[in-house]
Design brief:
Keywords: Carbohydrate metabolism, Cobalt, Glycosidase, Hydrolase, Iron, Manganese, Metal-binding, NAD, Nickel. The protein is of the alpha/beta class. The protein has helices at residues 36-46, 61-76, 91-95, 110-122, 134-158, 171-181, 195-209, 243-252, 266-272, 277-286, 294-297, 310-313, 320-338, 353-360, 410-430, 436-442, 451-464, and strands at residues 22-29, 50-57, 84-87, 100-103, 163-166, 186-189, 219-226, 229-237, 240-241, 366-373, 386-394, 397-400.
Length: 477
Amino acid sequence: MRAGHCAPGWNVTSMKDIEHPIPVRIAYVGGGSLNWAPTLMADLAHDTRLDAEVRLYDLDPAAAERNARMGGRYAEVSNGTPARYRAVPSPREALEGADVVVVSILPGRFDDMAQDIGIPARYGIPQAVGDTVGPGGFVRAMRAIPMLAEIARAIGEHAPNAWVCNLTNPMSVLTGALHAAFPGIRAWGECHEVTKIRRQVAGIANADAGSDRWSFRDVEVNVLGINHFTFVDAISLGGRDMLPAYRAFAAANASGVNETVPGEDAEHDRYFGSKCLVKFDLYDRFGIPGAAGDRHLAEFLPVGDYLADPGRWGFGLTPVEYRTRDQARRRARAEALAAGEIAPVAKRSDEALIDQIVALAGGGTFVSNVNLPNRGQLAGIPEGAIVETNALFSGLGITPLVAGHLPEGLHDIIADHAARQSALLQAVMAGEGGALFPLFHEDPLVRHMPETEARRMFGEMIAATSAWLPENLKGAA
């Protein structure tokens, strides 16, 4: 049964009237986060259904302490029961008794990400993001898999029955690492990229209606793919099949349409926005609309398809230098919030995590796209590979919904990536460094390179990030 037919509404619905707030204990691993943690705090302040205790653990204790103070400020403006925030010094103290675990870490430093992008660029491989696939995503995964495996084992020891939400990229590989290190884990990967196409569809419907009647939360889509390379083959809004309208929208905007992040400044939009030309071109090529943003979609295909000329395709390459400046800005804002110098705002974000938690706690049902091991929800992809489709959240748990089959051609591309991601995870978990370079060389962004040149690039990238690698992977090149 398709996701759009499983609940009264995709991403909003069937939430019960809750007389008393639901108590929930949240362990936040990476609790010094400057992006996802403040977003969660604003969402909890806006929400009226949960009575949350949040324990923040971070390798940087000062960052966790700052965020605990910041969380206290958000609690002051709460619409419901104020959440309580506490920084804790160890994973055990964060995890014991937790109902929900949120994993949001930076695998390495921005300096490492700069090498992930800069070294391939010198070899003629531009990357728009560099955190999911391609050479940058591959080496980032090598750093991060052991970290996520360690977190999963700690969850198995201290919170084996907790629900676990992974927010860390590369999403597919790292969600797989949680399941591989602790097979009993109840974990899913959460990503907001599909929001982009849902926002477009709501805009189309509002233009037709002549008023702002619909939001992206009203749009139902059937999601198929792997993280950051997602597609939709059914779209519904208010009972109306929106695929014909979306097809007309794409045809009418052959020169592109601006896709930006609400509330962000012009510089952010220059690096993170797009004209959706990649999305529309993939629609023409495969007969199915792309759901993720163009910057991500482009990285799953050979350099010559889109990345060789991003200007032509209307998207930018996000420089690490901008990310570093943006991180400093976020840090300054967090410190000002924690110190009471600026006022927090209880505001609902685009993220689905709060609704997912409420549903898992018995507060109703909720459908959204998530990353889970394949149990047949995506046809033709091996069982156990991490795929992104819709799932039903309820008091019974997380139930993947059958998405169907991808179009021929597109299926082959996604199956190739899914197999490589699974093999990469297996090799790193087993410490089989010798298996890594062949996988690295098979990536569509790398496979055009002569083996000697690709191996030299891989060696430079391994050397640049060796401080974060286990000993048995340092000689992988």
